[in-house]
Amino acid sequence: xxxxxxLAVVEDxxxxxxxxxxxxxxxxxxxxxxxxxxxxxxxxxxSTAMEDCLLAGRLSCGMTIYAPGAFTRHI
Length: 75
Fold this sequence. Notes:
Elements: H1 6-55, E1 64-65, E2 73-74
Antiparallel strand pairs: 1-2
């Protein structure tokens, strides 16, 4: 059985390392896109809630209301 030259083994290791680096870069990009998407969704929900409140004719949208003996709530 013939043995592979050492150079071929080193090239195989380099190719495997390159594939792993590419996979990790893809994973990092995917996670970054997911985090950014969640941030945008949260901002859009807050904006929608404020718009709905204003369209309902309320004047205290986004203000914290303190009622004696009650919990704090946002309208």
